[in-house]
Amino acid sequence: MNIVSDDIQEVTAAPARVDMYTGIHKALRAFMADTLLAVGRMDCDDAVELAQVTQRVLELLGACASHLQHENEHVHVAMEVRAPGASDAIAHEHQDHLTHITRLGNLVADLRGAGISARPAAAQHLYRELSLFIADNFWHMQVEETAHNAVLWSRYTDAELIAIHDRLVASIPPEEMMAVARWMVPFMNPAERLVLLADIRGKAPAPAFQAILDTARPHLTTAEWAKLARGLGLAPVDGLVEA
Ligand SMILES: [Fe+2]
């Protein structure tokens, strides 16, 4: 973690720049925290709940694996072009995360295959291992948001960063995009949410924009939805775009 300290100073003093990490990392932090809490309160004797919660863990693990792949293929490649070696430490952590993801997947399989008497211990084991994975990821994301951004901001213009991010987003399949929207839109602050949705409206087909709104809306409070609808100029009652 020592690589961070000098760069944090730089980031703290820097003016606002294009930040590829903050939105998706808020989504991941929310997805991770929510899933961990669900595992912690899970009733192992309830077969339906066990199936649902463990499926959610697998979905989280899949999202984490996809996310680090996107970073490797787009962000790290860009960093290495202009700052060779700058992504080495985090790329190494991505390898560790893949190992941890495989281990957690095996713990889910163990829990699902356990007899009734063995389930509580298996669930507790999964809960603790997942918490450590999440803790590690929280540190990891902090490094990316500070040290990696410092590298990106010193070597790329905002227009170039937007182009890199657009290529990354274009590589994401629609189903994955909807899963990301489910966790990203509700857990941003109102200003971030409005900027994101306005950007999506300008770049995506109208049905895709509407689908993202529909996905996020049930997870917003009434006040949050009102602020978003007002900012986007949407009809306040049904969320449809005004004619
Ligand atoms: Fe990462």
Automatic annotation (TrEMBL):
Q: Which Pfam families match?
A: Hemerythrin (PF01814)
> What InterPro entries does UniProt report for this protein, alphabetically?
Hemerythrin-like, Hr_FBXL5
Q: Which residues form the Hemerythrin-like domain?
A: 18-145
Q: Give the GO biological process terms.
A: intracellular iron ion homeostasis
> What protein name is recorded for this chain?
Hemerythrin-like domain-containing protein
Source organism per entry reads Caenimonas sedimenti
